[in-house]
């Protein structure tokens, strides 16, 4: 049995976990900062880094205790190396280096996106996904469409050219005067709305696997202001009419979901996928899950709700396969804030 202690501090979650054989969660601890960042309507990078410093030792101690292991009993220490906020990444990487050096354990720097990819492998009550698979990563900082041919073997098909899907949810939530994080708030508001009453156009970017959500966000702004799209905004900014919020939220969500689901399904058909993996924070969106399941030519697999957002368990799952492949990183490696998973 391979047991890996994993740390994750790429954004605003301080997390540690112990994972056995890439599939079994022996422990998972997440210290969320969402409440602290809510006042800013998004993550405040300097605040995030300081809070990681305050709690990283505690979450590691709790993760080892919950797994009933000492540091000397794990086989390796893994940590998110990137992508992410530089200040946040530094805290986790330095903590992991200290742990690995002190215990004489191998150190592995893991790509945060690869962690999300491997989150479905932590569904230990079902068979792991088959290859080839289409992976749709949708989160606050990333929207990527990948072809996964085998373990750690990826081809990037496309991604967002501007806002990530989760980022668009957060920004539109602020326009609609909803709470942070925006994804759950918009999903809740949309349940009582009619997407046809406030329809928005889709940026299909024909001929590519890429996405664009910036224009959709701007269209919502014009709709909130009640002004024709594309013309200069004029007049004082008035509070959004609460009665319009459900329809605006439903129309926005429907536009995002349709483009994401359609492109993922088309990619699965094009490449003969045996599974579609829906991962990342936005994978918790029920409308997106249902849209994919309704039209996919193969099984759609997504992590449990607790593993959709950032966590260290997924980093440990990915690290298992890197460990088996022989990855061992030197103690002097640096963070990679813009590290792509595949070219």
Structure described in brief:
With 343 residues, this protein is an alpha/beta fold.
Characterise this structure:
The protein has 343 residues and is of the alpha/beta class. The protein folds into two domains: 3-121 and 307-324, ATPase, nucleotide binding domain (Nucleotidyltransferase, domain 5, 2-Layer Sandwich), CATH 3.30.420.40; 128-302, Nucleotidyltransferase, domain 5 (2-Layer Sandwich). The protein has helices at residues 34-37, 45-66, 86-103, 112-118, 165-175, 182-190, 214-225, 245-271, 286-295, 313-324, and strands spanning 3-8, 13-20, 24-32, 76-82, 107-111, 133-138, 143-150, 153-159, 275-279, 300-301. Strands 3-2-1-4-5 form a five-stranded mixed β-sheet, with helices on both faces. The longest helix has 27 residues, at 245-271. It is globular and about 65 Å long. 52% of the residues are buried. The mean pLDDT is 94.
Task: Reconstruct the topology from this structure.
Layout: E1 3-8, E2 13-20, E3 24-32, H1 34-37, H2 45-66, E4 76-82, H3 86-103, E5 107-111, H4 112-118, E6 133-138, E7 143-150, E8 153-159, H5 165-175, H6 182-190, H7 214-225, H8 245-271, E9 275-279, H9 286-295, E10 300-301, H10 313-324
Parallel strand pairs: 1-4, 4-5, 6-9, 9-10
Antiparallel strand pairs: 1-2, 2-3, 6-7, 7-8
Helix pairs in contact: 2-3, 4-10, 5-6, 5-7, 5-8, 6-8, 7-8, 8-9
CATH architecture of the largest domain: 2-Layer Sandwich
Q: In one word, what is the shape?
A: globular
Count of distinct structural domains:
2
**Low-pLDDT residue spans:** none
CATH class annotation of the largest domain: Alpha Beta
**Helical percentage:** 25-40%
Spatially, the strands of the biggest sheet line up as 3-2-1-4-5
β content, as a range? 15-25%
* C-alpha Rg (nearest Å): 20 Å
- CATH homologous superfamily identity of the largest domain: ATPase, nucleotide binding domain
Mean pLDDT: 94
Distance between the termini: 33 Å
The third-level CATH topology of the largest domain is Nucleotidyltransferase, domain 5
Q: Specify the biggest β-sheet.
A: 5 strands, mixed
Output the structural class: alpha/beta
Number of helical segments with 4 or more residues: 10
Secondary-structure element order, N to C: EEEHHEHEHEEEHHHHEHEH
**Number of DSSP strand runs:** 10
